[in-house]
Amino acid sequence: MSAPAGHRGGQPMEEVSDLDVAKLTGWMYANVAGFAGPLRYAKFPGGQSNPTYRIDAASGAYVLRRKPFGPLLPSAHAVDREYFLISKLHPLDFPVARPFGLCEDDTVLGSAFYVMELVEGVTYWDGSLPDKTPQERGAIYFEMCDRLAQLHNIQCERAGLGDYGKPGSYFERQVGRWTKQYRLAQTDDLPDVEKLIEWLPRTLPPQTRTSVVHGDYRIDNMIFDMEAPRVKAVLDWELSTLGDPMADFSYLLMNWMIPANGASGIGGIAGAGTGIPTIEAMVERYCAATGRDGIPDLNWYFAFGQFRLMSIVQGIKKRLLDGNASNAHAEETAARVPGLAASAWEFARKAGAS
To answer: In this structure, are 31 and 134 located in the same domain?
Structure first.
């Protein structure tokens, strides 16, 4: 079902006291145009990455995202990169929140953070969209597809994003990155993971295009208009870079492979009866919008996507064991690691692994 943006499944905001109000107020006066205090804040529920807060002040409402406190894995939780990207995308009329300011001085709140506008709208936590008509469901999914195509059609050099990612094979870098992240956070020996770490770099698909890649593009990382099938803001850019747009598109289509689960998975329910477009319809629309003749076999990409998700969840598990997880559901999430590894290897087998 739908819920106000930021409220996972209708959960209330979390009353916390982990930000220094006096220091934050001073920073807001100095860095956010038009700001007027006093302010109060609460933490958005959900999410395992960068803790996110709603700030209410005399001048209006804002959102603050910060790095977690404590020791972190290298390159993780890069709020500075996230801020830089949305500051480049916002002037292009791509749907992101307006950025107000970035603070990299840990003495203010204890970790780096940035502030952006609060975008009013709705977040759909259940990909089956049970409170929508078939026509509305189709429009929402095609809107997601169109916005992804819009992102992938941005000319990076012209947008000032030519240096946002490294040159060369995106998936080669990604396989290396998530293998390294997994090793740094590893707590168990899982045979499926070891087979994937050997197989993925041997079977890299060719990269034919380079674009901005969101890295976590799914329905619950967006804020939609309350009255229309329109994305008002795409959220959570911390995994973004320049890379192969097939990474985003295959990640989105992975939801068609996951049985409908009350979250983003919609496997088994797409079609005329529900109005949710089939994979074939999504591929046709995306290819038309991006000028592609077609897309390659998806199984390798699905295997990598599950491997990457497994590595991210392994990081959550490690933070849980270290006492540094940012969400009350971290323990439940951490238990998913073996299942994600098995799913990744099953897709690898479909792609030819043995």
So the answer is: no
Give the structural domain span for 203. Answer: 126-350
Tokens of 334: 């951490």
Residue 309: exposed, middle, or buried by beta-carbon count in 10 A (0-12, 13-18, 19+)? buried
Total tally of structural domains belonging to the chain: 2
Model-level pTM?
0.87
State both tokens at 314.
């392994």
Average pLDDT of 180-202?
96
Token pair 């990612």 is found at 165
What pLDDT does 249 receive?
A: 98
3-state secondary structure of 354: coil
Q: How far is 45 from 326, CA to CA, in rounded Å?
A: 10
Side chain identity at residue 11, one-letter code: Q
CA distances for 23 relative to 20, 64, 78, angstroms = 6, 14, 22
Name the average pLDDT for the chain.
91
Does residue 36 sit in the same domain as residue 24?
yes
What one-character-per-residue DSSP string does 31-59 give? HSTT----EEEEEPS--SSS-EEEEEETT
**Cα 137 to Cα 127: distance, rounded to the nearest angstrom:** 9
Same domain, 51 and 107: yes
**Pairwise CA distance, residues 93 & 336, whole Å:** 37
In sequence order, the 6+-apart residues with CB closer than 8 A to the CB of 183 are: none
